[in-house]
């Protein structure tokens, strides 16, 4: 009888997971492409066509795993934006599946709460549907934490090290978690077996990380750290002004996106778990400290997606506070939570301009130059024009949303035949004039953001399309150019 109930329980979980997965991939490419997505997917495209080395991302400080996975999945789904975003969704659901399998052995209510609290969270729903490194990184870290907390798991040191190493192949902040096995073994376990396993975990992780060191661009992975963080020497010399603002910003993201009930419940769950000496809660507690300390103390430029790891740790803690609640009450709480968050998630999926994103994310994704609003429509226009004409497109940027977003959005077989795309920077720049003089295309266009086009250049071009961004965000503008205006 128990086996039958267990089997039906798993079938129910699998059905719920499949329903969530279908929901997550519904209109996956509806949200406009973001600058970093465009960059990563353009690297992917270059790797596919063997234009660049598979390690090209390392030159710009990014490990290559996400790009490699995007290459593989693009053979099944040629739409690169869909393929890249699907990587993030699949990463999340593999993590959720294994989390349920592991936690359900000790508590079904805890396992189900983890599933619903994470998959219903706007924080996760928003960021796991983007072709960014973060969800892949968070899934790897999450699996490392899960495996390390399982005292009876064979090869737990190796498995923990494996996923810590793979997490580094996704994003370099994985280094924050490298001491975790040793710290938890010394503080909480204090026995020979766990200390040996912790050394195995760290050794395995370091070995996997050092595989990347065989590439000449390995040192570039750390070359841009000064752009995003202060150094320890700066902190020791009195650089503290960033700490209050960082704490305020992080709290505002978590309060909105987790959302706030999870934040409150996570504090209760953490207290209960530490009091009961629950292994996974202890592991998550150390992980929180190791991750938040450098981010809060040294963070110079922050984005909500950098804290996505909290989007799995805090729901785990919150779910623990619910594990002893009666089933009927738990079902009511989880249902109410899902209904509470659904409107935000559904709006993001179907009508993103009306979604109440945090002000920093509104600027980044929906208002500023980094927003890809208008890229899809402009790409469709250029492809249509290239059917009967040779077309040359000059763009505002040299990398990022423009021109990389166009390369990713336009069918590759069209580019290079009837359609050329070149990033020239500002309209009227030396590179702009040079490309204009050299082109023999039937039609010439310039694509750029309104606030980055000066009036002198605007007067020489004909505005033919405008793609509005959210509220007062400067629209993306498409101009047709006549060469004789620049003779």
Task: Present the secondary structure layout.
Layout: H1 2-25, H2 35-48, H3 65-74, H4 80-103, H5 108-119, H6 122-127, H7 134-148, H8 156-168, H9 180-189, H10 192-211, H11 225-228, H12 232-236, H13 242-257, H14 260-275, H15 279-298, H16 310-320, H17 327-350, H18 359-367, H19 375-385, E1 391-395, H20 404-409, E2 419-423, H21 430-438, E3 443-449, H22 455-460, E4 462-467, E5 476-481
Helix pairs in contact: 1-4, 2-3, 3-4, 4-5, 4-7, 5-16, 5-17, 7-8, 8-10, 9-10, 9-15, 13-15, 14-15, 14-16, 15-16
Number of domains: 2
Helix count, DSSP H or I runs of 4 or more residues: 22
Shape: globular
Poorly predicted segments: none
List the helices and strands in order: HHHHHHHHHHHHHHHHHHHEHEHEHEE
Q: How much is the average pLDDT? A: 94
Strand content: 5-15%
The oligomerization state is: single chain
CA distance, first residue to last residue:
86 Å
For the largest beta-sheet, the strand count, sense and barrel status come to: 5 strands, mixed
Task: Name the helicity range.
Answer: 55-70%
Order of strands, main sheet, comes to 2-1-3-5-4
**Rg calculated over all Cα atoms:** 24 Å
Strand-pairing-aware structural class:
mainly alpha
Number of β-strand runs = 5
Please give a structural write-up.
The structure is a single chain. This protein has helices at residues 2-25, 35-48, 65-74, 80-103, 108-119, 122-127, 134-148, 156-168, 180-189, 192-211, 225-228, 232-236, 242-257, 260-275, 279-298, 310-320, 327-350, 359-367, 375-385, 404-409, 430-438, 455-460, and strands at residues 391-395, 419-423, 443-449, 462-467, 476-481. It is mainly alpha-helical and 487 residues long. The protein has two domains: 2-354, no CATH class; 375-486, D-Maltodextrin-Binding Protein, domain 2 (3-Layer(aba) Sandwich), CATH 3.40.190. The protein has a five-stranded mixed sheet with strand order 2-1-3-5-4, sandwiched between helices. The protein is globular. It starts with a helix and ends in a 6-residue tail after the last strand.
């Amino acid at each position: 009888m128990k086996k039958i109930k267990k089997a039906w329980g798993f079938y129910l979980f699998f059905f719920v997971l499949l329903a969530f997965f279908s929901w997550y991939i519904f209109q996956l490419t509806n949200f406009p492409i973001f600058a970093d997505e465009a960059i990563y997917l353009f690297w992917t495209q270059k790797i596919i066509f063997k234009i660049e080395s598979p390690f090209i991302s390392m030159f710009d400080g990014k490990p290559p795993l996400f790009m490699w996975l995007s290459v593989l999945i693009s053979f099944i789904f040629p739409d690169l934006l869909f393929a890249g975003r699907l990587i993030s969704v699949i990463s999340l659901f593999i993590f959720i599946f294994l989390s349920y399998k592991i936690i359900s052995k000790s508590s079904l209510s805890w396992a189900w709460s983890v599933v619903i609290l994470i998959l219903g969270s706007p924080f996760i729903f928003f960021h796991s549907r983007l072709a960014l490194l973060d969800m892949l990184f968070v899934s790897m870290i999450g699996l490392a934490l899960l495996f390390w907390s399982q005292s009876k798991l064979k090869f737990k040191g190796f498995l923990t090290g494996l996923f810590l190493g793979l997490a580094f192949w996704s994003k370099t902040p994985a280094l924050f978690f490298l001491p975790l096995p040793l710290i938890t073994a010394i503080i909480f376990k204090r026995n020979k077996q766990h200390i040996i396993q912790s050394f195995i975990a760290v050794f395995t992780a370091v070995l996997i990380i050092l595989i990347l060191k065989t590439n000449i661009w390995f040192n570039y992975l750390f070359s841009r750290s000064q752009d995003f963080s202060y150094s320890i020497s700066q902190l020791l010399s009195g650089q503290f002004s960033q700490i209050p603002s960082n704490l305020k910003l992080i709290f505002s993201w978590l309060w909105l996106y987790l959302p706030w009930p999870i934040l409150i419940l996570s504090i209760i769950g953490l207290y209960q778990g530490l009091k009961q000496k629950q292994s996974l809660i202890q592991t998550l507690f150390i992980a929180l400290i190791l991750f938040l300390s450098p981010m809060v103390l040294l963070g110079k430029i922050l984005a909500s997606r950098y804290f996505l790891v909290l989007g799995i740790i805090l729901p785990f803690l919150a779910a623990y506070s619910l594990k002893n609640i009666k089933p009927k009450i738990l079902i009511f709480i989880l249902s109410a939570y899902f209904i509470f968050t659904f409107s935000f998630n559904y709006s993001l999926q179907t009508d993103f301009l009306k979604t109440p994103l945090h002000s920093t994310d509104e600027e980044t994704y929906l208002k500023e130059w980094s927003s890809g609003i208008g890229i899809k429509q402009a790409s469709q226009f250029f492809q249509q024009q290239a059917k009967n004409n040779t077309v040359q497109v000059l763009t505002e940027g040299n990398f990022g949303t423009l021109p990389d977003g166009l390369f990713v959005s336009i069918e590759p077989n069209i580019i290079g035949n009837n359609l050329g795309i070149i990033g020239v920077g500002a309209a009227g720049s030396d590179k702009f004039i040079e490309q204009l003089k050299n082109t023999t295309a039937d039609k010439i266009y310039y694509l750029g953001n309104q606030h980055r086009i000066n009036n002198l250049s605007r007067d020489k071009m004909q505005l033919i399309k405008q793609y509005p961004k959210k509220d007062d965000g400067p629209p993306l503008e498409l101009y047709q150019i006549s060469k004789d205006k620049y003779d």
